[in-house]
Amino acid sequence: MLQQLKINNYALIDNLEISFGAGLNILTGETGAGKSIILGALSLILGQRAESRYFFNQQKKCIIEGTFQIGEFHIKTFFEDNDLDYAPETVLRREISADGKSRAFVNDTPVNLTILKQLGEKLIDIHSQHATLEINDPAFQLLVIDSVAKHPDLLNQYHVTYRGYKSVTVKLKQLLDESERAKAELDYHQFQFDELEKASLSPDEQEKLEQELFALNNAGDIKRNLSGAHYLMDEGETPALLQLREASHQLTTLEKFDPLIAEINQRLKSSIIELKDIASEIETIEQRTFINEERALELNARLTLIYNLQKKHRVSTNAELLQIQQDLSNKIQQVLFGDEEIEALQQQIALKKDLLQSLASGLSANRTVAIPLIEKQVQESLSEMGMGNATLKIENAVSATQAFDQNGIDHIRFLFSANKGYALSEMSKVASGGELSRLMLSIKSLIASNTALPTIIFDEIDTGVSGEVANKVGQVMERLSQNLQVITITHLPQIASKGPNHYFIYKDDTAATTYTRIKPLTNKERVVEIAKMLSGDNPGDSALQNARELLKG
């Protein structure tokens, strides 16, 4: 329920704070005092778009904050799905700056207006005399029937199964489409695959072949330079190794004079050994280096094949060609074995269809039982509110076998006649605003007695009724408030006398600027306020007494 509402800098409100109670909350006040302004501010935290021209002070931002008790509404999954912190006492806040920029928060977590609106719809239902679209909505009409049918577990099982069924049918369509395309392209894919498979590619082959070909193409230069290096090191008239050996011999004769000379000579001898090994390896490489034109031709042919394949498939490496080969293999396998997966999915769909038909039949049976109960209870409630000749008829067009949708096989339509002798028709065509309001009140009362509803706000839906009928409307609201929080804005004393919580909205002209204020009324103040609603600003004793009797009743 809406526990508290804070409004700062909106229209005629500079700073206002309201704490609402459980059950029935009455809001009264003169026309223009600001009742609609309060609803307008409340709508901002329910996701409605804001206009800065409604700000009280154009230099300050507008802040609206609502505190809700939500523990009984079972909407924790909504918070989890939208990555919000859940708390049984949840705060919705909206901040709008003077330049029109808006920020919204749920428990201090920033959210966009879509999420705020979705959450707001789960917490508050605002109904005015002219807000009759919902009652003509087939989804709402079905909700009414399901709430009376009392089959939430069966309905949830159906919805889960239906979502699974739709998911599998989408997957089947994708497979069928892919299978058709694959079959049409099978020969082309097979040719490409065979060409790649015949090439017997390996991931690192190209680099090795290019390196080997480079060496073969430069074999003459390589052999000549290796031979020259070996000649300088170990051949010729004065090879480097011979000179180094002679240098070591000269140092050997001096070792006895200085230990450092002996150490240097040892290092030189080690270098001679290493250089001798290097010369030997150079000679080995030189001897095995030779010009092989046949091998060069073979390498050129292999690389030409690789380059052509890469160009054809618009890639630059063998690894990419191998991935294409694997993809082609998968497409071919899909054609060869895809029918098995399609058959498996078709069998799965057939099983889900049978289950859905069974669940839908169960839902339909429960709805069929609920429909006359709804018609009877709504008729009784309307009669109580002065519409004894009104008739609500609920038609259910049951679909043929396995022709189900997301709600089952039932297609509901509410038909209504407000007066005797008039044909039943869609409600928007035959009912006035006041009649639709009483019809909606009857239906909401019925739903609330069977399931948890959010806070409901009635904005002067009692227009067009008076006297005993108004008293009956108030009694229906009182019964409704036993199951949920009801906030109603009214000009009728018969309704204002109902419920334990009465708030008076008024304009404060004591300062230089007019402000909208609100205050909870004591029992004594309620008597005076209701007496004024009965007879004017200066109620007499009879009006006061009448007000006391209304409050007692």
UniProtKB/TrEMBL annotation:
<dbReference type="InterPro" id="IPR003395">
    <property type="entry name" value="RecF/RecN/SMC_N"/>
</dbReference>
<dbReference type="InterPro" id="IPR027417">
    <property type="entry name" value="P-loop_NTPase"/>
</dbReference>
<keyword id="KW-0547">Nucleotide-binding</keyword>
<dbReference type="GO" id="GO:0005524">
    <property type="term" value="F:ATP binding"/>
</dbReference>
<keyword id="KW-0227">DNA damage</keyword>
<dbReference type="Pfam" id="PF02463">
    <property type="entry name" value="SMC_N"/>
</dbReference>
<dbReference type="GO" id="GO:0009432">
    <property type="term" value="P:SOS response"/>
</dbReference>
<dbReference type="GO" id="GO:0006281">
    <property type="term" value="P:DNA repair"/>
</dbReference>
<comment type="similarity">
    <text>Belongs to the RecN family.</text>
</comment>
<protein>
    <recommendedName>
        <fullName>DNA repair protein RecN</fullName>
    </recommendedName>
</protein>
<dbReference type="GO" id="GO:0006310">
    <property type="term" value="P:DNA recombination"/>
</dbReference>
<keyword id="KW-0067">ATP-binding</keyword>
<dbReference type="GO" id="GO:0043590">
    <property type="term" value="C:bacterial nucleoid"/>
</dbReference>
<comment type="function">
    <text>May be involved in recombinational repair of damaged DNA.</text>
</comment>
<dbReference type="InterPro" id="IPR004604">
    <property type="entry name" value="DNA_recomb/repair_RecN"/>
</dbReference>
<feature type="domain" description="RecF/RecN/SMC N-terminal">
    <location>
        <begin position="2"/>
        <end position="509"/>
    </location>
</feature>
<keyword id="KW-0234">DNA repair</keyword>
